[in-house]
TrEMBL record:
Keywords: Cell projection, Cilium, Coiled coil, Cytoplasm, Flagellum. InterPro entries: Tektin-like (IPR048256), Tektins (IPR000435). This is Tektin. It is found in: Cytoplasm, Cytoskeleton, Cilium axoneme. Pfam families: Tektin (PF03148). GO terms for cellular component: axoneme; microtubule cytoskeleton; nucleus. Its main location: cytoplasm. It comes from the Eukaryota. Belongs to the tektin family.
Amino acid sequence: MLVGMATMSRKPGQRYCMTDWETNNRLLMDTAEHQCHQSQQTRQEGRALRHQTACKTRWDESDSRGRLGDRINEVTEQKDRLQFCVQAVEREIEAMTQVKEEAERALADTAVPLEVVVECLTQRKSCRGGELVRDPLEGQLKREAQMIDTTQQELQQHISKAFEQLCCLKEARQQLTFDLTNKTEALDVDLSCLSLTDRSSDISFKPDPTRVPTSASTHQEWEQFTHYNVTRAEEEMQASLQLRETMTSTRIQSQNDLEGQRITTGFNLRKRAHQLQQACSQLHWQHTATREEITELMTDIHHMEQECPLKLVHTRLENRNSRPGVDLCRDQVHSGLVEEAKQLGATIEALQQNLARSMHSLQSLEEHQACMGEDLSRKQEALELEQRSNHIHQRLEALPEAETAKIIPGVTVPKPGFTREMY
C-alpha cells in the first residue's frame, strides 16, 4: 500500500504531442526502411561480388588448369624427345661397343700371323753360305710383317678413339637421363597440381606462395637446356656413327689386304721351295755326273800308265844289234823301228802331258765335287727350312678365311690357282 502510494505520488515525465509522436514513428520507420534498403543493396552487391569473384575464380582456375595442361603437354613432349634420344644413344653405345669388341678381336687375331711371319724370317736366317740370299720371298715376308704391324697400330688407335667416344656417349646419356628424371618429377608435380580442386583435402594456405626461388630458370633457359642436351647427344651419335663406319671399313680393308698378302707370301714360299728343289735336283745330277767322270778319268789315267809299247821297240832294236857281220845292217826294219821309237816317244810325251792335264782335271773335279757336295748340303738345309717355313705359314690359311667369312659377309678375296707350270 505504501509502495503504490509512492508510485502515484511520483512526478510524471514530459509529455509529447501527437504530432511529435507521429513524426517520431515515421522517422523510425523511414530509418528502418532506409537501413533495410541499404542492407538489401549491400547484400545484392555482396552477392554480385561473390558471383563475379566466383566466375573470375572459376575462369582463372580454368585458365590455370589450361596452362597446367599445356605445360604438361610441353613437358611430356620434351620428355618423349629425351626418352627417344636416350634410347638412340643407348643403341649407339651398344653398336659402338660391338664395333670396339670386333676391333679388339681383330687386333688379337693379328698376334698369331705376326708370330708366324717372324718365325719364318727367323727360320730363313739359319741358311748357310750362299743360300742366305735377299730374295723376293724375304721382301714379301717383311712386307707382310710391316702390314701386320701397321694394322695393329691402326686398330689400336681406333680402339682408343672408340673408348673415348664411348665415354662421350655415356656422358651425354647421363646428362639426358638427369634431364629426363627432372622432367619426370616436374611432370608428376604438375599432374598432381592439375588433379587438385578447391574441395581437395590436402590444400592449405602457404607462407609467401608467390616467392620465386633463387635457382629458378626462365622458360627460354629451360628450352635451351633440353635443346643443348639433345643436340650434344645427336652430335656425339653422328661422330660415333662416322667412327664406326671408318673402323669397319678400315678393319675390312686391312683384313682383305692381309689375306691378299698372305696368299702372295704363300705363293712365294712355294715358288722358292720349288726353285730350291730344282736346284738340288740339278746339283745332285751334276754331282753324280762329276763322280762318274772322275771314275772314267781315273781309269783312263791308269790305262795310260800301264801301256808301255816303247819297251817292245827298244827290245827289238837292242836284239837286232846282236846280228853278226854284214847282217848287222841298217835295213828297212831298222829304219821302221827307229821311226816307230821316235813316234812312240812323241806319243808318250803327249800322253804324259795329257796325263798331267787329266790329273789336274781330276783334282779340279774332286775339288768341285766337294764344293757341290757342300753346296748341295746347304741347299738341302735351305730346302728343309723353306718347307718348314711353308708349313708354318700354312697355319694361317684356315684362320683368315674363317674370320673373313664371319666378319665380312659377301666380301671375298680372289685366290689365284697355283700350278707347277706357274713356277
